Amino acid sequence: xxxxxxxxxxxxxxxxxxxxxxxxxxxxxxxxxxxxxxxxxxxxxxxxxxxxxxxxxxxxxxxxxxxxxxxxxxxxxxxxxxxxxxxxxxxxxxxxxxxxxxxxxxxxxxxxxxxxxxxxxxxxxxxxxxxxxxxxxxxxxxxxxxxxxxxxxxxxxxxxxxxxxxxxxxxxxxxxxxxxxxxxxxxxxxxxxxxxxxxxxxxxxxxxxxxxxxxxxxxxxxxxxxxxxxxxxxxxxxxxxxxxxxxxxxxxxxxxxxxxxxxxxxxxxxxxxxxxxxxxxxxxxxxxxxxxxxxxxxxxxxxxxxxxxxxxxxxxxxxxxxxxxxxxxxxxxxxxxxxxxxxxxxxxxxxxxxxxxxxxxxxxxxxxxxxxxxxxxxxxxxxxxxxxxxxxxxxxxxxxxxxxxxxxxxxxxxxxxxxxxxxxxxxxxxxxxxxxxxxxxxxxxxxxxxxxxxxxxxxxxxxxxxxxxxxxxxxxxxxxxxxxxxxxxxxxxxxxxxxxxxxxxxxxxxxxxxxxxxxxxxxxxxxxxxxxxxxxxxxxxxxxxxxxxxxxxxxxxxxxxxxxxxxxxxxxxxxxxxxxxxxxxxxxxxxxxxxxxxxxxxxxxxxxxxxxxxxxxxxxxxxxxxxxxxxxxxxxxxxxxxxxxxxxxxxxxxxxxxxxxxxxxxxxxxxxxxxxxxxxxxxxxxxxxxxxxxxxxxxxxxxxxxxxxxxxx
Length: 713
Fold this sequence. Notes:
mainly beta; five-stranded mixed sheet; Jelly Rolls
């Protein structure tokens, strides 16, 4: 047999993100990308990168609230709210994360001016949610600044002045030029701030972008609770900042509105979060909730698309729907960015919209259907902190700090305060008291300031401070909530590619098929990957990978995968004319640094002879069923043990295997005079150019086309 190898490098073309399966290409996913901007090029999960809000041009300290959304396959928009020292205004920064190049770009910020019942007062932001709706009903035509709609309901749908509109498509990512809306006069009439020329009647899209947020106030009745900013668009987040004014008496314009729960004095005035329903019921109904600690704990419900009646920017209970009754909660409720409203596919709230939130010792699930006016049974299940491996493997922290949900892996990410090196969890909602699934993160004391050594590896470092987090389609964004450049650091972690979930969530890297003609058996798979990311001194080793193979169902992606054992051994895999490999990546580890793949290859034996021998048709005899080889190349010493294998040339089935020591199924002989005389086989090296060996099996069926091979293994 001849030992051969074939290799596929990451230089090979990869299909586009989200594309259909192609057996001849690298099949990447929404969270696995081919990087062509690096040397060497590689394929792997989206690499972690670092953003530094304190070192942004705004240099705002104490940023601790996150939200965001997917803009397109390449970019996510991430918004950072400040909740540091209380102030009369609050700032929100916008970042764009490029998922192909792993580059953070700071877009800018807005300043929110809050309305108050009396004098302005310092407030602390407690929760924040970006609410984005796309209105595409009907068609629109443009003449200058005048937009005329057909079958539209712009005014009835309470769209906000200040938002943006694009023409020619209902897909916002396909819009080349956006126009700002300066007025909405009717259901069919919009005015733009600048002329769009003449555009024929056709498709359009309005991006209605809002920001719901909650604050607490030193004087609660004067400015605590839920606030809503309407009329936003990404262009407002600029390097110089855009100030959003407090509302006055006009609804649905660009302004900040206070959705109060009472006409005179705010009652539910200690919000801990801001939980917006994942989808709206209609253009006039979209509910928002917050956990409230005023007496001592209940939940308030608001309709953030309600028509507002305003006095100095305050709506006196038109948006407010109701409050539940009071319940007693175990543990201390976390006071900032505490959870959200999600629909998980498992656990106590499976398939239902539920508010998930936490205390220092538990994660709670409150079904939307359980949150009722005056109701006192508004949480349905609780998950206690049970680390993976149990409390004798990892000690309880009793310092749970936040919970968020990732829809790609259908798991909850639970963070701790980070104090004294506490780690974090990813888990199913386990209301039965069983162990959480994964533990991740650590504190390596590495400082990720902009002036840090270039040889460090970007990764999330706990830094022994709390973190805030959101997850956008499998990408976890985490921000340590310190107040200085040392500890206010943001990273991305592609949790959706973690090897536990990769196969079921289509986040597995599938390599091009490899042709292995005349393969008798496989030997080993090899993967060329980074041994360390960053410099040799300060870099970090990436997390491990798992390799899978298949030899059938390759063309149509129907074949099942088998895991390769440790050592990358394939000697037990039957020969095949083609083979394909797939790779799963571990993400949830200490540093969460994914591996980078440069190439994948396979070593195999074909039906060829050992390189020292050549098949001899002249000295073989099909009548007597003898198979001969010329001794073509000397070993330079004693001939090692040789093996003979006879295969059915049609079916490639192994008919017989024997060796020169055992000779259990036939006889070996040797000639040194060009076959003139044959004697007993020996292990002497090549004598001359007329040295031959041959093998005669004891029995062999008739009428078989035979491939005969001599080898050392």
